[in-house]
Design goal:
Layout lengths: L7 E4 L26 H7 L4 E5 L5 H9 L5 E6 L9 H12 L6 E5 L2 H5 L7 E6 L5 H11 L3 E9 L8 H8 L11 H12 L3 E4 L6 E5 L7
Parallel strand pairs: 1-7, 2-3, 2-5, 3-4, 5-6
Antiparallel strand pairs: 6-8, 7-8
Helix pairs in contact: 5-7
Length: 222
């Protein structure tokens, strides 16, 4: 995709000494200023059914379900494999254990991102949080396959909205894992994709690994 003009709205409110507020610190004014505030933002806009793609041990999936009881259903999607010396069995079992208390509100989907997207009908999800592959082309493929699944009025958000090395990729490099080198081009991929659609990208400034979210208009091209 060609890089077209994309409108980026930064969502941040620095406090004393330029520090960013932490979730739950200070009043929530209806605008998510950390990714931890996204579940409340979704629920306030009656977005109750969604998915997280790229789950690891389900820390953020837990937060979504635990922090916002109005979320009715969350699909936690990951292909799960050995990662940074941790075996796939340990990671998957950890995710299952963490999500077990939420019962039918939680469903684990053990598939790669694109394959999992085919299980969902278009316009079937209220929200999605993308935290999977960080390379440019895979990010765009995720967006191509998942954006049509979001209902009109819904929200697609994601993590590691930056280019040039997120904390996870940098950690991989420090540990001698070459897979972390030259990675993390999420920001460019997101800007290209939504720039072509004319969709505004809202940036959540939460260094070092910012997030973003985009809202789907009711008359928008899918």
């Amino acid at each position: 995709m060609s890089l077209k003009r994309v409108t980026i709205h930064s969502v941040h409110d620095r406090g004393p000494q330029g520090r960013l507020p932490k979730a739950g610190k200070g009043p929530y004014d209806g605008i998510p200023r950390t990714r931890e505030e996204l579940p409340r933002f979704w629920a306030d806009h009656q977005l109750y059914v969604g998915a997280e793609v790229g789950v690891y041990m389900a820390g953020f999936s837990m937060h979504i379900l635990n922090s916002e009881p109005r979320i009715r259903k969350l699909y936690s999607i990951d292909q799960w494999c050995d990662f940074e010396g941790v075996t796939v069995d340990r990671i998957l079992n950890g995710a299952r254990k963490n999500l077990a208390p939420f019962g039918e509100r939680s469903e684990i989907v053990h598939l790669p991102s694109i394959e999992a997207s085919r299980l969902f009908k278009n316009d079937s999800l209220d929200f999605l949080y993308l935290d999977a592959d960080h390379d440019h082309d895979p990010v765009q493929q995720d967006l191509i396959h998942w954006w049509p699944k979001i209902k009109a009025g819904g929200c697609l958000a994601g993590h590691d909205y930056r280019s040039g090395g997120c904390s996870r990729c940098n950690t991989m490099v420090k540990k001698g894992d070459p897979r972390g080198m030259g990675r993390c081009d999420v920001e460019r991929a997101v800007n290209e994709f939504f720039g072509d659609l004319g969709v505004e990208v809202h940036k959540i400034c939460q260094p070092p690994d910012n997030s973003f979210y985009c809202l789907k208009g009711r008359g928008e091209i899918k």
